[in-house]
């Protein structure tokens, strides 16, 4: 034997040996006097670094001892002692053995016996870790076994092995992970990227909870793989009990198919399928659902439900395409056999925007965007998904075309020139009426098993002042264009003058349908122009601001800014003679005080000579403290006040702008730092300064001092009888999230209606009046729901770490059923996700309703 440890220590050199099967030639001297062995595979070398290298010529072995590190291609083997047998081509490693793969995976053990390329062999006390870097996270999986076998570097077999994605406890590594799978045999196939489990048990915190004779799962490197997905269980009165078993088919790298059969004990087989494809410039999908019901009687009869239907189904599609850097197109489409299908079968619809308005919106669009321009063309179809929604009142809106272009003004006048254009066309079959105030009059009152159901709200008396028109039947088309100019001048003392001017033109073509249903009653409320009608609105104005700024050092920069604005234009024409579809949302507050036109859409245009007056005061300190106060009002100086004469929807009335001098509006905001904000905005009656509208609340994020995020808001709106609100509205909303530890969290939200009791009282009074007049039915009974009515609440919590997510939530919401009464929908939702294995949701309704939307009963 020849020892070279002293030489290595003194020289500090890396020893490189070409080790392979038996020597092909003799030993040749290295330039530094170190031996070099050449192999029968030119270019293949095993690089060795160690404190001590022992070369035994008699037994054809080489031993590296002390911090031994061997490199073969992309793989690295580290151990206390490594022996290479040239006769057998085997490598024996002992003591703190660590093998690093080409992909970054790490295998550790007490003893390894491997081939000289490290691809095949045995590992004692195996510990393996695989790391995959995904877009938003890093996923690590861990294998362990008393003994493991590697085959050609592509497959590893574990006897009595375990698998988990959880990190071991740093202080107590012997503690079982949050979850792991123990199996009699585990095979990890790196070629197919699949993990196979035979005779396995799922353990949570070391406690066995489920036995699985055999199953397989993709390893973390797999993003798409053909196979079964996590099943979903269903249990309702109408559907019975059942299970969904999704099957994913990876057809190609850019498209796939998911088939989801759901077997329901009471309704049969619900078939669902989704096809997805990604193309060079976008993607699209298509989802189909359908069932031939075996028990249609579980649902209410028409028009309350789909009780007469045998086949029910839906079709959905979404597409997004990026034509070039400036243009894109897409669609969101949904079609259903009936409006209750998606809810009845608990199918999540990608086009339903909120839980409060059960409406699916289909749209197709083309959008172009330039440096200072915007083009958008769309079409809309709205599908109501509640028993209260009458589809004949829902409009088809197509097209809606918007164009906005800004350019620098001509050299002679400077400033900015802006051109805006809009074309909107819509069609509906039935006029939508709204009683003033909102009444209990309905178009239909079908009964089922002795219970009367009120559907499709309408007016009791069809005349102006007691009835408004929120949407006209027939076809209404409008084309609008506006050309505007503005330029700012700042004089030597800091005054800012911004003159502006605009010219607005509108052309309407109305073909109102006065036949069928209650369409013929529209003329009793308003005279609507038919055929072609036009409107022109020129305007000139001036915006004046004079900020006074003072810097008080540590006390911050204080700014006092008076603001004045005057706009001169003729009176608005044809008020109440034209449709109003897109300008019904009129809110007068601090955000709209200095708007040139305070209407929210193109169907109305503000006219007359008006001045908007106000001022604001703000403070910004070096420590980040910020405060702002704004206050002002709007005054009609000449001409017809557009807000005093309500249109066919009564927009403008009860708005705070209908008098010559408007209500006062104000805003107060304080932000001690960037994490906490208090804000209050209000509208005060001009005559006696009482509060007509108030919104106040706070948002706060206390991190890093306290892991708490919360928000709370109080809202108050006075009665607006001319808009259908006969009494004031008041409510409170609050949300909070608290991270107990970096892993544990709780959250909750509340929506409290403080005036619901007034709705109940009005409903009772209407019912009592109807009973006394007709003496039909039973005497109505008044039940006071109390001052604080919980309209919605959710509470929950959970645990989240690198390998799992568990959350439990309770949701309580008030639902208005087809009977016209409110009931409680109480749901418990449990969600469990084990990373790399899958996730499961369990949703259970714990309330018992008398009659919900479309269903005779529910649990």
Helix content: under 10%
**Taking all residues together, what is the mean pLDDT?**
86
Which structural class do the helices and strands define? Answer: mainly beta
What composes the largest sheet?
31 strands, antiparallel
The value of Rg in angstroms is 37 Å
Question: How would you characterize this protein structure?
Answer:
- The protein starts with a strand and ends in a 14-residue tail after the last strand.
- The chain contains three helices and 54 strands.
- A hairpin with a 5-residue loop joins strand 9 (90-100) and strand 10.
- Mean pLDDT is 86; it is low at 1-43.
- It has a 31-stranded antiparallel β-sheet that branches.
- It is mainly β and 859 residues long.
- The longest helix has 19 residues, at 756-774.
- Helix content is 3%, strand content 55%.
Task: Considering the chains and any ligands shown, give keywords for the structure.
859 residues, mainly beta, 31-stranded antiparallel β-sheet, 14-stranded antiparallel β-sheet, 54 strands, 55% strand, globular
């Amino acid at each position: 034997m020849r020892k070279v440890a002293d030489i290595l220590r003194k020289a500090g050199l890396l020893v490189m040996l070409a080790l392979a099967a038996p020597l092909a030639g003799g030993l040749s001297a290295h330039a530094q006097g170190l031996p070099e062995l050449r192999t029968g595979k030119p270019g293949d070398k095993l690089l060795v670094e160690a404190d001590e290298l022992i070369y035994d010529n008699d037994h054809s072995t080489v031993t590296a001892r002390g911090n031994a590190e061997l490199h073969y291609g992309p793989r690295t083997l580290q151990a206390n002692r490594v022996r290479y047998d040239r006769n057998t081509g085997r490598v024996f490693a002992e003591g703190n053995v660590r093998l690093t793969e080409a992909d970054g995976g790490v295998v550790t053990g007490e003893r390894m016996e491997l081939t000289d390329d490290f691809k095949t062999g045995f590992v004692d006390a195996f510990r393996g870790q695989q790391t995959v870097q995904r877009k938003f996270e890093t996923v690590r999986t861990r294998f362990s076994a008393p003994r493991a076998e590697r085959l050609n570097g592509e497959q590893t077999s574990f006897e009595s092995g375990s698998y988990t994605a959880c990190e071991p406890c740093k202080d107590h590594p012997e503690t079982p992970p949050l979850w792991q799978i123990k199996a009699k045999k585990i095979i990890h196939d790196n070629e197919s990227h699949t993990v196979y489990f035979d005779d396995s048990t799922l353990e949570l915190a070391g406690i066995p909870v489920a036995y699985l004779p055999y199953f397989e799962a993709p390893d973390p490197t797999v993003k798409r793989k053909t196979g079964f997905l996590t099943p979903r269980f269903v249990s309702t009165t109408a559907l019975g009990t059942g299970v969904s078993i999704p099957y994913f088919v990876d057809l190609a790298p850019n498209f796939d198919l998911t088939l989801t059969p759901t077997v329901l004990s009471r309704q049969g087989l619900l078939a669902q399928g989704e096809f997805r494809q990604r193309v060079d410039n976008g993607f699209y999908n298509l989802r189909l659902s359908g069932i031939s019901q075996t028990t249609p009687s579980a649902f209410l009869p028409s028009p309350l439900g789909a009780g007469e239907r045998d086949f029910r189904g839906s079709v959905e599609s979404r597409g997004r395409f990026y034509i070039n850097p400036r243009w894109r197109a897409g669609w969101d489409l949904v079609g259903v056999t009936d409006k209750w299908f998606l809810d009845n079968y608990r199918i999540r619809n990608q086009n339903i925007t909120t839980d409060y308005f059960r409406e699916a919106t289909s749209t197709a669009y083309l959008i172009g965007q330039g440096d200072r321009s915007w083009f958008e063309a769309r079409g809309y179809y709205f599908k109501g998904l509640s028993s209260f929604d009458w589809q004949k009142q829902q409009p088809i809106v197509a097209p809606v075309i918007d164009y906005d272009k800004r350019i620098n003004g001509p050299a002679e006048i400077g400033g900015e020139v802006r051109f805006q254009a809009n074309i909107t066309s819509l069609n509906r079959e039935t006029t939508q009426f709204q009683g003033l105030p909102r009444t209990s009059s309905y178009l239909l009152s079908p009964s089922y098993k002795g219970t009367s159901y009120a559907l499709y709200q309408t007016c009791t008396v069809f005349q102006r002042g007691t009835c408004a028109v929120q949407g006209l039947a027939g076809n209404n088309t409008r084309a609008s264009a506006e050309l505007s100019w503005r330029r700012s001048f700042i004089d030597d003392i800091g005054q800012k003058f911004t003159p502006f001017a605009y010219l607005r033109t509108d052309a309407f073509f109305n073909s109102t349908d006065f036949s069928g249903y209650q369409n013929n009653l529209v003329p009793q409320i308003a005279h609507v122009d038919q055929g072609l009608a036009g409107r022109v609105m020129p305007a000139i104005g001036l915006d004046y601001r004079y900020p006074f700024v003072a810097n008080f050092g540590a006390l911050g920069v204080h700014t006092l800014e008076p603001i004045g604005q005057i706009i001169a234009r003729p009176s608005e024409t044809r008020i109440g003679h034209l449709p109003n579809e897109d300008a019904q949302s009129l809110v007068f507050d601090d955000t709209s005080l200095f708007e040139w036109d305070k209407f929210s859409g193109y169907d109305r245009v503000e006219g007359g000579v008006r001045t908007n007056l106000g001022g604001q005061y703000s403070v910004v300190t070096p420590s980040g403290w910020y405060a702002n106060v704004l206050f002002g009002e709007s005054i009609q100086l000449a001409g017809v006040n557009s807000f005093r004469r309500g249109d066919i929807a009564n927009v403008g009335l009860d708005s705070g702008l209908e008098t010559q001098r408007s209500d006062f509006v104000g805003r107060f905001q304080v932000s001690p730092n960037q994490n906490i904000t208090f804000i209050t905005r209000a509208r005060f009656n001009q005559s006696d300064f009482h509060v007509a509208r108030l919104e106040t609340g706070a948002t706060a994020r206390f991190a890093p001092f306290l892991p708490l995020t919360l928000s709370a808001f109080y809202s108050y709106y006075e009665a607006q009888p001319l808009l259908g609100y006969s009494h004031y509205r008041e409510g409170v909303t609050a949300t909070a999230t608290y991270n107990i530890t970096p892993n544990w969290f709780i959250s909750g939200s509340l929506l409290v209606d403080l005036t619901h009791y007034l709705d109940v009282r009005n409903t009772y009074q209407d019912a009592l009046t109807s009973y006394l007049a007709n003496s039909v039915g039973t005497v109505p009974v008044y039940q006071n729901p109390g001052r604080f009515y919980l309209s919605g609440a959710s509470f929950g919590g959970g645990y989240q770490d690198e390998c799992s997510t568990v959350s439990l939530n309770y949701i309580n919401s008030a639902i208005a059923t087809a009977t016209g009464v409110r009931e409680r929908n109480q749901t418990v939702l449990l969600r469990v996700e084990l990373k790399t294995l899958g996730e499961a949701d369990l949703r259970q309704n714990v309330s018992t309703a008398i009659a919900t939307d479309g269903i005779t009963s529910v649990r």
